[in-house]
């Protein structure tokens, strides 16, 4: 699922020949965040390299937990009331899904140890709580999955301690904002006020549980119910979409042709194949960047054989090609067609929940989708967030719904990606701030985008079914 080899990070960057402009939070004013300052995405001269740096991009992708993170969730004028919050996350740091042929697997310990880095104050209590087992059942087949990682040598695709801590931190951050500051949930919150959904992978279930453990003031198993989503696109009963798959096939063809033109990339794969003594085609099929990223993120040396060592120069060449691929992908727009159809079902579910909350319903006011890079990536693209980087480990995309207390019938939304307010960088609201001083976007804009404008962009159809079955594409 997705228009690339699984596990390959493709950081999203700006157009060539422009000063680097990335999704970096801007400084807050002394008396809070001004609406004007929050409408801009500014370069950070301290941390942003002047040109594309594959090592810098890889570090961002790793998302090693830090003590503090700047975030802009929950910012609004005092007369606005937070009504509901909808969170879409990528799972945290994981062990590779692929093995570099004829090399030793990276030795990463997937047991959780409270006094080992990375550390979180709730880690030990999280392990203790999870080890008791759930007091309520999950939707099948989730009940058969382990609730936390627990192997001395990680299994393929298993969440690591870093991944657990990343989402404990996410949960703590959201708790401080949404519960302590805005009191989104009452102290006696109920199961009906949460909507929790995850794919059938242990890394997504465990990531969701870690976030909830950091988020909820009282993690009560009797109130936790995760639904199972069979599709990484979270399309539920609306997954059959032939035109979406045609867009994907064209996008994959574009990827293939770009790779053929990159002679340095081909030489690099050839060198690596000689080191591990396999045909170049077999090495490429093994998706070596997935395993190399694990070595990189965990500071483990790249593998060696008697023929030599895979090294940082090999890594840089592959990463640089991925960044170039992402640049061309944006320009050719084939992926955008795939993204609009791929993201529509989950966006449609989200606005339906927002509309119910705006009407006064108290159910499902906090939604959590625990998902993958191939879930977030099409949603980001569909929303028009062309400057957003490819989803890092433990990335979070949040939709906030607000009510104006001075005009109770009016509701607005804010969109945040990894703590950065990107509302006015979405295609449905990029011009709204020119007409309004409010630091958010009318709910009607998002509803109109999902119900109508997404299809207009695909050639004039008016609904999801017709767009998916359009003749003559």
UniProtKB/TrEMBL annotation:
One of its GO terms (cellular component) is Golgi membrane. Its EC number is 3.1.3.2. It comes from the Eukaryota. InterPro entries: Acid_Pase_AS (IPR033379), His_Pase_clade-2 (IPR000560), His_PPase_superfam (IPR029033), Histidine_acid_phosphatase (IPR050645). It is a single-pass type II membrane protein. It is found in: Golgi apparatus membrane. One of its GO terms (molecular function) is acid phosphatase activity. The keyword Glycoprotein applies. Its main location: Golgi. Keywords: Glycoprotein, Golgi apparatus, Hydrolase, Membrane, Signal-anchor, Transmembrane, Transmembrane helix. It catalyses: 3-O-[beta-D-GlcA-(1->3)-beta-D-Gal-(1->3)-beta-D-Gal-(1->4)-beta-D-2-O-P-Xyl]-L-seryl-[protein] + H2O = 3-O-(beta-D-GlcA-(1->3)-beta-D-Gal-(1->3)-beta-D-Gal-(1->4)-beta-D-Xyl)-L-seryl-[protein] + phosphate. The keyword RNA-binding does not apply. Responsible for the 2-O-dephosphorylation of xylose in the glycosaminoglycan-protein linkage region of proteoglycans thereby regulating the amount of mature glycosaminoglycan (GAG) chains. Sulfated glycosaminoglycans (GAGs), including heparan sulfate and chondroitin sulfate, are synthesized on the so-called common GAG-protein linkage region (GlcUAbeta1-3Galbeta1-3Galbeta1-4Xylbeta1-O-Ser) of core proteins, which is formed by the stepwise addition of monosaccharide residues by the respective specific glycosyltransferases. Interacts with B3GAT3; the interaction increases the 2-phosphoxylose phosphatase activity of PXYLP1 during completion of linkage region formation in a B3GAT3-mediated manner. Belongs to the histidine acid phosphatase family. This is 2-phosphoxylose phosphatase 1. It comes from Equus caballus. The gene is PXYLP1.
């Amino acid at each position: 699922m997705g228009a690339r080899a699984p596990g390959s990070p493709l950081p999203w960057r700006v157009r060539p020949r422009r000063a680097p402009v990335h999704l970096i939070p801007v400084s807050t004013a002394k008396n809070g965040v001004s609406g004007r300052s929050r409408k801009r995405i500014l370069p950070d001269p301290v941390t942003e390299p002047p040109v594309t740096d594959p090592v810098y991009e890889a570090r961002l992708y790793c998302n090693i937990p830090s003590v503090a993170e700047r975030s802009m969730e929950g910012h609004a004028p005092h007369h606005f009331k937070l009504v509901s919050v909808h969170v879409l996350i990528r799972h945290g740091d994981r062990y590779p899904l692929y093995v570099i042929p004829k090399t030793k697997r990276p030795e990463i310990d997937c047991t959780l140890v409270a006094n080992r880095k990375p550390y979180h104050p709730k880690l030990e209590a999280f392990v203790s709580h999870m080890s008791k087992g759930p007091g309520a059942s999950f939707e099948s087949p989730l009940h058969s999955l382990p609730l936390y990682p627990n192997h001395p040598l990680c299994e393929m695709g298993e969440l690591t301690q870093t991944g657990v801590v990343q989402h404990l931190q996410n949960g703590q951050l959201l708790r401080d904002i949404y519960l302590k500051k805005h009191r989104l949930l009452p102290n006696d919150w109920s199961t009906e006020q949460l909507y929790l959904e995850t794919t059938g992978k242990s890394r997504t279930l465990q990531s969701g549980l870690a976030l909830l453990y950091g988020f909820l003031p009282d993690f009560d198993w009797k109130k936790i119910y995760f639904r199972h989503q069979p599709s990484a696109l979270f399309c539920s009963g609306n997954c059959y979409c032939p035109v979406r798959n045609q867009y994907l096939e064209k996008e994959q063809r574009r990827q293939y042709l770009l790779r053929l033109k990159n002679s340095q990339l081909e030489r690099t794969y050839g060198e690596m194949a000689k080191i591990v003594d396999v045909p170049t085609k077999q090495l490429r099929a093994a998706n070596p960047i997935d395993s190399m990223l694990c070595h990189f993120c965990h500071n483990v040396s790249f593998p060696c054989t008697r023929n030599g060592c895979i090294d940082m120069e090999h890594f840089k060449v592959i990463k640089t090609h991925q960044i170039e691929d992402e640049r061309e992908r944006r320009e050719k727009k084939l992926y955008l067609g795939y993204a609009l159809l791929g993201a529509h079902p989950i966006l449609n579910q989200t606005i339906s929940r927002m509309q119910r909350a705006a009407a006064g319903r108290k159910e499902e006011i906090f939604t959590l989708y625990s998902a993958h890079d191939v879930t977030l990536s099409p949603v980001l693209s569909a929303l028009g967030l062309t400057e957003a980087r490819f989803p890092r480990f433990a990335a979070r995309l949040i939709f906030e719904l607000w009510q104006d207390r001075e005009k109770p019938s009016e509701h607005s939304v804010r969109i945040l990606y990894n703590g950065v307010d990107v509302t006015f960088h979405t295609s449905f609201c990029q011009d709204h701030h020119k007409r309004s001083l409010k630091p958010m976007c009318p709910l009607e804009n998002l509803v109109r985008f999902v119900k109508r404008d997404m299809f207009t962009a695909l050639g004039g159809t008016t609904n999801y079914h017709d767009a998916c079955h359009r003749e003559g594409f």
